[in-house]
Design a protein that fits this description.
mainly beta; 0% helix; 54 residues
């Protein structure tokens, strides 16, 4: 499983690095599902959710 996303501060939201991309996802253990939240290139900066950063 991937690592916790420090910028978000929610242990349920994880990320993996694949090539030049950060893939953020959440695992629903009850339903045994993985929901992908976002995929973006490492050259982009990730801001806090709801902060208005683009």
């Amino acid at each position: 499983m991937g690592r916790t996303v420090l910028e978000i501060g929610d242990e349920a939201i994880r990320e993996v690095l694949y090539r030049n991309n950060r893939i953020k996802y959440v695992v629903d253990r009850d339903d045994e599902e993985v929901d992908v939240l976002t995929i973006f290139h490492l050259s982009q900066q990730f801001g806090r959710l709801g902060s208005g950063d683009e």
